[in-house]
């Protein structure tokens, strides 16, 4: 398996990204192309001092440009054709890599993926999925930011794509829920009501509407929504985890008895931290593109990058795109007119 890594994306420079690539090739039989400024990458590799035997599985692909976080995605990919994220997806297009991973500008990453790879047949809009921890197994939400204004057909396709991806968690028949303001079929805005009817007629395992409080319960495997709502849910969840962690730390430091209690409860806190840590879930897959791509948080740690690279291999191995294409073909007859 061969994954291309945009080694210049992210908020912390190439060190965390390259360290994650080193960890990935240590853990799995994997090759990771480091795409970016060759001099910077070579210097970073020397500083990290990986096992010399691993360097053969960490080839460097030189590029002269980088798309910054604040740049307009459309303008950036038009002007910077030799940007690291563009070259990474070009390797996938040329069949020199099986997938690409970037922690850079998410809009530019999606735009580069669509420009270089195109869309899966019959997919109207590619989107971004994200895995959330729950009381049971992870739940996949889509879309979480790529498509703010959607039509019912788009949400139906998000459900299909997210269901295919959720199978990396070994779920054979994912339960699909539609995010709304009530469980009843008649609840929600016009988009939700029309999408509900389409999902009910589809071949998916649709269980009905779910509410925001259901996201963390684990009673559903896929949650469908437009990118505006999905991105709000994603950011609220990230903020909640950070705030809860800070509150716990302040509580522990408030008294000697709290500190003693923490000492005995440390294994529980370690398990909780790992369970809610975004790094454990790697990156967010770009679903609907004619290839494999993941976008990671700009502040990703080396562990998050490692997991994203390994996640990319799983997406290729279980043939997510083939599942998406076949399921969409089986549901092409569902339109607003014939419901």
Overview of the molecule:
The chain has 339 residues and is an alpha/beta fold. The chain is built from 11 helices and 11 strands. Strands 3-2-1-4-11-10-5-6-9-7-8 form an 11-stranded mixed beta sheet, with helices on both faces. Helix 3 packs across helix 5. The longest helix is centred in the C-terminal third of the chain and has 26 residues. It is globular, with a radius of gyration of 21 Å. The relative contact order is 0.16. The mean pLDDT is 90.
CA radius of gyration: 21 Å
Helix content: 40-55%
- Beta-strand percent range: 5-15%
Could you list the spans in which at least 5 consecutive residues all have pLDDT below 50?
none
Secondary-structure-based class equals alpha/beta
Indicate the overall shape: globular
State the order of secondary-structure elements, H for helix, E for strand.
EHEHEHHEHEEHEHEEHHEEHH
Number of continuous helical runs: 11
Q: For the terminal residues, how far apart are their CA atoms?
A: 44 Å
Q: What average pLDDT do the residues reach?
A: 90
């Amino acid at each position: 398996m061969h994954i291309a890594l945009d080694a210049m994306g992210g908020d912390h420079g190439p060190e965390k990204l390259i360290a994650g690539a080193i960890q990935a090739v240590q853990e799995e039989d994997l090759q990771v192309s480091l795409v970016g400024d060759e001099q910077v990458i070579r210097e970073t590799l020397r500083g990290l001092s990986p096992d010399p035997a691993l360097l053969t599985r960490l080839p460097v692909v030189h590029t002269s440009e980088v798309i910054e976080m604040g740049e307009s995605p459309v303008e950036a990919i038009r002007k910077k054709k030799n940007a690291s994220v563009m070259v990474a997806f070009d390797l996938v297009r040329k069949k020199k890599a099986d997938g690409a991973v970037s922690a850079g500008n998410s809009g530019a990453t999606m735009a580069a993926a669509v420009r270089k790879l195109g869309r899966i047949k019959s997919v109207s809009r590619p989107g971004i999925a994200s895995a959330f921890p729950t009381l049971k197994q992870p739940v996949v939400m889509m879309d979480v930011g790529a498509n703010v204004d959607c039509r019912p057909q788009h949400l139906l396709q998000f459900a299909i794509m997210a269901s295919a991806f959720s199978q990396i968690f070994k779920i054979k028949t994912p339960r699909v829920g539609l995010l709304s303001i009530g469980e009843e079929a008649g609840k929600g805005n016009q988009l939700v009501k029309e999408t509900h009817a389409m999902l009910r007629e589809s071949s998916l395992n649709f269980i009905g509407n779910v509410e925001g409080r259901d996201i963390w319960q684990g009673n559903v495997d896929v949650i469908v929504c437009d990118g505006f709502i999905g991105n709000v849910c994603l950011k609220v969840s990230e903020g909640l985890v950070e705030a809860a962690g800070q509150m716990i730390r302040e509580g522990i430091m408030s008294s000697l008895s709290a500190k003693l209690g923490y000492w005995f409860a440390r294994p529980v806190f370690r398990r909780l931290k790992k369970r809610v840590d975004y790094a454990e879930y790697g990156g967010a897959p770009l679903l609907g593109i004619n290839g494999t791509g993941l976008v990671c948080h700009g502040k990703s740690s080396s562990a998050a990058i490692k997991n994203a690279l390994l996640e990319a291999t799983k997406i290729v191995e279980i043939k997510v795109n083939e599942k998406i294409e076949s399921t969409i073909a089986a549901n092409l007859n569902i339109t607003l007119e014939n419901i």
